[in-house]
Design a protein that fits this description.
alpha/beta, 6-stranded mixed beta sheet, 4-stranded antiparallel beta sheet, 9 helices, globular
C-alpha cells in the first residue's frame, strides 16, 4: 500500500470544491460534492461507470460548467474566469485522456512538440528538443521519437500521452482511467509511472479509475463516488474497512488480495 508522501502540503489545497452539483436533464450526476486535493497529493476517485467521475474532472478543467457549488483550482474561482483566464489556467493542468489523444499523422516527437509550439511560441528549437527528450526519458520511450503512434503498443501510447501532458510542466495532473484496456503488467508500469511523475514533477493529481490495483498503488487518498456524492474517503485500508456493503461489493468485484 502506498504511504502518504512527506512532500504533501495539507495546508494548501490546489483543488477546493464545495457543494458541486451537475445535472443533464433529469439525470442528477453530482449531488453536492465536496473535495480538496492538496499540493503534492495523488487523490484517487473511485466509482462505477456512470457515477460522475469523468464529469467531475471535466468541470475542474472548465470543459463543463457546474450547475451549483464552488470550484477553485490553483487559487482561481472557475466561475469568475473569462475565456483568456480559463485558457491560461488550463496550461497548468495536464489532462491524460483515456485514449491518449495522439495525432496519427505525426511522429512521437512532433506530437510532443505540438503543445509547446502552440502555447509557448518564444521557445527556441533547442529548448523544444530538450523538453521532448526530457519527458520521453521520464516515460522510458526516448527510442520512439521518430515513430508514429500506430507503431506503438497500447501501453506505449498511454505513456506517450502522459509525456505530452507533462511537457508543459503542469501543476496538476488529471488521469482518466489510466489503466483501462491494459494487461496487468503494463497496468503496473503505468501505475509506477504515475508515482514517478508525482515525485519527479511535484504534481498534484486526481486519478479517475475503477481499478483497485491502480488505486492502491497510486493513491495517497481515495474517495468513493456513489449516487452523486462521496460516501467514503481515506487511505486504501480506511476506505475498504468502511463497512458499507456497496463499497465491499466493489472490492470483491476487483478480486484484490492484501
Amino acid at each position: 500500500m502506498k504511504n502518504l508522501r512527506t512532500h504533501i502540503d495539507t495546508n494548501e489545497a490546489v483543488i477546493h470544491i464545495r457543494g458541486l452539483e451537475k445535472s443533464f436533464g433529469n439525470n442528477h450526476v453530482l449531488r453536492g460534492v465536496d473535495l480538496d486535493v492538496y499540493r503534492g497529493e495523488n487523490v484517487v476517485v473511485l466509482g462505477r461507470s456512470g457515477t460522475g467521475k469523468s464529469v467531475l474532472i471535466k468541470i475542474i478543467v472548465g470543459l463543463l460548467t457546474a450547475d451549483n457549488g464552488y470550484v477553485e483550482v490553483l487559487g482561481k474561482n472557475l466561475s469568475k474566469l473569462d475565456i483568456v483566464e480559463l485558457r491560461e489556467l488550463r496550461l497548468r493542468i495536464g489532462f491524460s485522456f483515456q485514449n491518449s489523444a495522439l495525432y496519427d499523422s505525426m511522429t512521437i516527437g512532433e506530437n510532443l512538440a505540438f503543445p509547446l509550439k502552440r502555447n509557448k511560441r518564444n521557445l527556441a528549437p533547442k529548448e523544444i528538443e530538450n523538453s521532448i527528450n526530457e519527458v520521453l526519458e521520464e516515460v522510458g520511450l526516448l527510442q520512439t521519437i521518430n515513430q508514429r503512434p500506430s507503431e506503438l503498443s497500447g501501453g506505449q501510447r498511454k505513456r506517450i500521452g502522459i509525456a505530452r501532458t507533462l511537457i508543459l510542466k503542469p501543476d496538476i495532473m488529471l488521469y482518466d482511467e489510466p489503466t483501462a484496456g491494459l494487461d496487468p503488467i503494463t497496468s503496473m508500469e503505468i501505475n509506477n509511472l504515475i508515482n514517478e511523475v508525482q515525485n519527479d514533477f511535484h504534481t498534484s493529481s486526481i486519478i479517475i479509475t475503477h481499478d483497485l490495483t491502480c488505486a492502491k498503488i497510486t493513491g495517497d487518498r481515495l474517495a468513493v463516488l456513489l449516487d452523486g456524492k462521496f460516501i467514503a474517503e481515506g487511505d486504501f485500508t480506511e476506505v475498504f474497512e468502511h463497512g458499507d456493503e456497496r463499497i465491499q461489493s466493489f472490492y470483491d468485484y476487483n478480486f484484490i488480495n492484501d
